[in-house]
Amino acid sequence: MTRANFAFCGAELAAVYVLTESGDELRLAEVVGDRGGTYGLPAVVALGGRSPATDAYRAGRPLWLSPAELAAYVSTDTRGVSPVGAGTLPPKFSLGALPLGHGATQVGCLVVAGEMADGFDADRRSLLELYADQVTAGLESVPARVVGRAGPRAHPGPTLVPLHSGAFTLTLDSGLMEADARVLELLGIAPEDFDGRVETLLACAVPDDIPALMAVVEPGRLSSSGEQLAFRIRRPGGELRWLGLRCRLRLGADGMPERVLGVVADAVYLRPTDDEVAIVQGLSARLAGATTVRDVSRTVVETLRRPLDASRIAVAEVESDRLLVTVLDPPEPDAWPGVWQTEWRSEWPDASVHSLPTLGSALRDGHMSLWPPGADLEPGLLGIGPGGLAVVPLPADGRLVGVCLVGWDAEHEFTPEERSLLTAVAGLLGSALRRAHALDAGHELARMLQRSLLPRKLPVLPGGVAVARYLPATAGLEVGGDWYDVIPLGDAHVALVIGDVQGHSAAAATIMGQMRTAVRAYAVEGHPPDVVVSRANRLLVGMETDLFATCLYVDLDMEEGIAIFVRAGHLPPLLRHPDGTTEELVVEGGPPLGVLAETEFSMTEAGLVPGTLLTLLTDGLVESARLPLEDGMQQVSEALAASDPSDIGRVADELLGTADGRDDDVAVLLLRYDGTRVRPLRTHWTVWRLSNAVLHARRFAGRTLRSWGLTDEVDMALLVVSELVTNAIAHTQGEVGLDLTLSSERLRIAVNDTSPRSPVKPADVDWEATGGRGLLIVEATTAAWGSVPLSGGKQVWAEIDVSGGGRG
After folding, report:
1. Which ranges carry the GAF domain (predicted)?
2. Which among 260, 247, 264 has a CA at the least distance from the CA of 174?
3. Are 228 and 246 in contact, with CB atoms under 8 Å apart?
4. pTM strictly above 0.70
């Protein structure tokens, strides 16, 4: 079809007027089907003047003129000049002027004309309005500096008006379709081969695009305002062609959906260039060798970074209403909005789609969304691309598997080549993610099991910050046995544990879970570090398993900075001092757990000053078939020396940055020791089992509290001391100890005894009885109280609020 015989839905002429840079004129950019200039359309019309194009543009809605209405319109021009053109209008000549774009995004006006005695009917008007939307899409893809400066185009080449376009009507109750010859020509179907079934047309589409095409006509998806979709077809000769589809729903007299009107046009602005084809072909080849989700994501980022010149690229999988982030580029946390920093830096990186409603809406639509500079977006998206943002859903097998976000800092104008490249990459990336996810199923199972066995979050510590990272092995599909834990203990102590069970199997993971639970239980009971490790060793020996485990246990006094280390066949810890120097701490070691039942484990003491970074790790980070242990430890030491301990989470991420392709699990536990600003006052008293033991305990407590500057709380504290010591003397045997601790806010009174039985508060007290009220009195006079098990006994404690009192 040539421009001379252009015709569409009764229109024999189509002219595109575009808004000039000055914003006060519409300039004729292209005209087709003009019969050699018979109609003489004006080259420029003032936006404030009177013409069908300017009237429709200002009103923001189509203007339809029948022959009689057009004649009246021309005759009312006060200047005596035809607002349509200088030529003579043929008889029965009808005209339509349709604005291109909507509201603030209007870019021009489309004028169509044809010999229609009664004007354009309702169906033709709807189809021409859809056709105008196709023109708008093509016009938006052409740089503004190219359009409308050189006057109407008369030369061969890409056209603003889709010459290859056709219309169809789909009857919903019967499923029959009427398509004109131009639709069939676009799809490469001979008219005699078309059977009126929509399935025949769908068979021409690329398989990846068929689900989106079918979804367009699903109940509830279409509206009377229209839908749009770009899709690909494979013509009989093998040529791949981009087509644009726009649909509109027609309702019957009863208000029910009756027909679908559609326009199909050749979307030349989506055709890839030779460079884009080379990029897509190269990406396809590289994705074929990517076996993990992270490999797929990084491959796409590396491919798109240079041609798009983007500031940020993110790839995430979509699972239910969560975004599982696989790659953020650049990797620096401060390069991303706060919501992405928070979610990304968590133990298990994911984000809720509900926190980004605009993104959620784009994903529900399933189509690529391009947001220009200054778009009204929530901060979590606007911060990714203040100069422009592309949201590219990633489809595979008829469902959405992920999303790619591309953002620019500087003002960015989306070119047709970029649209084409992103659309082509979306299908490749979606299929590659689905394939990698299937290959990653074993790793995902390992991650899920690991998440259930490892602590989800680490506790908040007074005087320090702890973070941990864990990565399962990428070689093989078995579950590993690395574990870590942070256990708050009494008296401002904390236990740090890291370990590794031999092998990769469900048995190793089971042993790992049991060992972590056992070490935590022994530590909370109050055993010394060597006893904790020794009991865990005997427990593993008693399990009669062939597996053994290594372990490094640290008891750290957060107030004094004194750390006690016990090492059982594990790697030694690394210390980064405040001045940046790093050392491998020499810790006397013992055999791994589970080897010898009767083994003594030595303790090594070291002092930490505020600002020290303590690093515990497993051998998966520093040793592999390609990396000797000594070299790996040296690399980690150098990375620690060059790190900024003020952001300890980032330090942990940097340590894992070179752990790709690992054949073993990796666990890292870091603690930055800051020290406490105010050290509590502590003292201990051994209660003698005498007839007046309570009296001596009260005298000791009174002298101590007065020396600490407490006055108002003394009477209450002595009452609590009396009750707790009396219970210990009366109901237990062996040694009884009294501990007093004063912090800036509370006084803690603790009584230790050798009975493991916890005290029980009476449910009903006979007030004529001489006993049984002690714990009720303690509960009524203190801010909190409780009981914790200790090695060979228990501790009953109570706390009194002294935040308003003084301290000497």
Report:
1. 292-443
2. 260
3. yes
4. no
